[in-house]
Design a protein that fits this description.
alpha/beta, about 40% helix, globular, about 10% strand, TIM Barrel, eight-stranded parallel β-sheet
């Protein structure tokens, strides 16, 4: 037994050494695991201790909608409301046309630039007048009336528009120039103003009317001249179908040229039915004669149809209305129907 003691001690020492080594290994493994867990715990605690900066994402999907939402259809289309603007006013009716007649009251114009054609046309028609004559100048060559004036006057009044010109000492040349202007402007009648160059020269009257009637055989025409124009050879004018418009300018020459005196002076060639005196609208050497006074003088002459000269100076509506009243009450001109 003593002989085996060292062997037993060696074995026991060896076993003790193995036990110590085994215990050390176990202790190391446990210490490493505890450090790992502690570090993980510390890391996890630090991660969970901070407050979240946003709502955690929802991982679960919302339940499927089983009922479809109502359809959002567009509202039905509506008809646009009618425009609220007033309908345009109907255009005024054109005035009725008045045929040319020397028995109507008329107007001779000297300066068309001083007369508005629409205003003058409406004023004349509302006052019972029946025609207007535009200046053509003269002696030849003539100056045609400005384009558009006659058309605007006719559109506003329905009255015919003619022309008048002064004759010189060349009757044939004057007649040709007159006919050319009348045609170029479409004028409806003509008034020849024959004064000094024709006084005492009845041959010139004959030459003019003959040449004129060759060119214008049926156009309404009239002679404007002195109240006593016997020296012109009135017979030639009367036979050529001209009426007579004596210049009854009482405001310049007094009662010797009153309408009644003019009728007597022309009686050998023109009956009163073809005499239509022209009265003045201006203040002459004898002063100004108002329309009402001229109307009385016209009534005393027993004629029907007259004219005023120059019409553009008759700017007061009451003067036109004075002639209108005289036409209705004294019958110094034919009655022109309203527009």
């Amino acid at each position: 037994m003593h002989r085996n003691l060292p062997r037993l001690l060696a074995i026991a020492g060896t076993g003790l050494l193995l036990a110590v080594l085994l215990a050390d290994v176990v202790l190391r493994q446990r210490g490493g695991r505890r450090g790992t867990v502690t570090a993980a715990a510390q890391a996890g605690g630090a991660a969970t201790s901070a407050p979240p900066t946003s709502r955690p994402a929802t991982t679960a999907s919302p339940p499927a909608t089983t009922t479809a939402p109502p359809a959002t259809t567009a509202p039905p289309a509506t008809t646009a409301p009618p425009a609220t603007t007033e309908p345009p006013a109907p255009a005024p009716a054109a005035p009725s046309s008045v045929p040319m007649s020397w028995k109507n009251a008329g107007a001779l114009i000297v300066d068309v630039t001083a007369a508005d054609p629409e205003w003058l046309g409406r004023m004349m028609r509302s006052s019972g007048f029946g025609w207007a004559a535009l200046p053509m100048g003269g002696p030849a060559p003539l100056a045609a009336p400005p384009p558009g004036w006659a058309e605007r006057f006719e559109a506003a009044s329905g009255l015919p528009v003619g022309g008048w010109s002064v004759l010189g000492d060349a009757p044939g040349e004057d007649a040709a120039a007159v006919a050319q202007v009348l045609r170029s402007r479409g004028l409806s009648f003509y008034i020849a103003d024959a004064e000094a160059p024709y006084n005492g020269r009845p041959d010139r009257s004959q030459a003019f009317v003959q040449a004129f009637r060759v060119l214008e055989p049926t156009l309404p025409a009239a002679l404007s001249s002195f109240c006593d124009a016997d020296g012109l050879g009135l017979g030639a004018w009367a036979k050529a179908g001209f009426d007579f418009l004596p210049q009854a300018y009482v405001n310049d020459f007094g009662s010797s040229v009153a309408p009644r005196a003019c009728v007597r002076a022309a009686a050998r060639f023109f009956p009163p039915s073809r005499v239509h005196p022209t009265v003045a609208c201006y203040g002459g050497r004898q002063g100004y004669i108002p329309p009402a006074q001229f109307a009385q003088l016209l009534a005393q002459g027993g004629t029907k149809g007259f004219s005023v000269f120059p019409a553009e100076t008759l700017v007061r509506p009451e003067d036109w209305q004075a002639y209108a009243q005289a036409i209705g009450s004294l019958h110094i001109a034919a009655t022109v129907p309203p527009p």
